[in-house]
Design the sequence.
């Protein structure tokens, strides 16, 4: 877009061609794109909003005929111009509002539509990001007060097709931090990350019936998280590498709920490391090959001290203070 105006106005777009069929678009800062009326019948695959996207002028509600992926960037805004403050989405839609982005006002109801019938809904209680709303294939709605990518298909961390709406985590999207949600029945692999998660993932939540595979099969380099992360495992987490450590920086947490489990073909340990120097802090924390049959918690303080607890077999409550950093594995 080169100027503000209606989506269907050809003069708004460079080249003089308005979007048609299925399309993706980016709305620059300072530009407002308006979609008047009650329905977008075109297939908007993805819309990155740096300016303003205004929907539903002259209508009580606004309906997307096809599932969109809408990403409201910092300083961007999604504006509700409907009289009833209702947006209707098909399943497989997602709206992600990054920190600094927002809605015109709180109070808009986001509803999922299946077979022409409105189902689950969520009403916005805040006009500012970060925020994510995902309309899942089963007709449910998941919302998060964070930028969150939702793994709905088994696949790799780096593949857009793994995630709802193709909204995969990346250094760009996650510059202010991202969460990852793995839903039941899905296996999320990290093999494509080649042993390191080098952008800001603040949390990974693995639902009951889901699996999170850490590491690369056959690789002996382990796996490194390059920012503090909270791992919440209600399903199954497996280490699939052939060697190395799971490396966590200070401020991280690793939690397995009752009914969750961790497994590895080899005995594996967690190494706490200094983000500035890359050196190990304190002793290794041995996980072994299996943690199950109860809860497990490993919490790393900002200084690198480790507290372990839980009810799983072989787990005892301990607290270890950090030692002088040393070269790690």
Sequence:
């Amino acid at each position: 877009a080169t100027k503000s105006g209606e989506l269907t106005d050809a003069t708004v777009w460079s080249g003089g061609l308005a979007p048609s069929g299925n399309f993706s678009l980016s709305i620059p800062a300072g530009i407002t794109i308006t979609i008047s009326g009650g329905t977008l019948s075109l297939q908007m695959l993805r819309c990155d909003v740096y300016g303003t996207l205004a929907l539903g002028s002259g209508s009580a509600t606004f309906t997307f005929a096809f599932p969109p992926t809408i990403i409201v960037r910092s300083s961007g805004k999604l504006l509700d111009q409907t009289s009833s403050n209702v947006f209707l989405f098909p399943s497989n839609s997602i709206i992600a509002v990054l920190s600094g982005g927002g809605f015109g006002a709180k109070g808009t109801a986001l509803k999922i539509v299946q077979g022409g019938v409105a189902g689950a809904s969520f009403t916005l209680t805040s006009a500012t990001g970060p925020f994510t709303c995902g309309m899942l294939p089963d007709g449910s709605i998941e919302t998060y007060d964070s930028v969150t990518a939702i793994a709905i298909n088994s696949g790799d961390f780096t593949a857009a097709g793994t995630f709802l709406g193709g909204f995969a985590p990346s250094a760009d999207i996650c510059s202010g931090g991202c969460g990852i949600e793995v839903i039941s029945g899905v296996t999320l692999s990290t093999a494509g990350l080649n042993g390191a998660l080098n952008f800001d993932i603040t949390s990974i939540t693995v639902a009951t019936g889901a699996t999170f595979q850490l590491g690369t099969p056959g690789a002996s380099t382990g796996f490194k998280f390059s920012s503090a992360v909270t791992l919440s495992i209600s399903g199954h987490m497996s280490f699939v590498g052939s060697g190395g450590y799971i490396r966590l920086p200070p401020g991280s947490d690793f939690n397995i709920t009752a009914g969750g489990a961790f497994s590895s073909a080899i005995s594996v340990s967690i190494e706490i490391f200094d983000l500035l120097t890359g050196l190990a802090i304190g002793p290794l924390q041995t996980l072994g090959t299996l943690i199950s049959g109860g809860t497990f918690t490993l919490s790393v303080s900002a200084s690198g001290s480790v507290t372990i607890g839980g009810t799983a077999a072989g787990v005892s409550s301990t607290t270890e203070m950090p030692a002088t950093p040393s070269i790690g594995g």
User: Anything to note?
Assistant: The radius of gyration is 22 Å. Residues 280 and 307 are 17 Å apart (CA to CA).
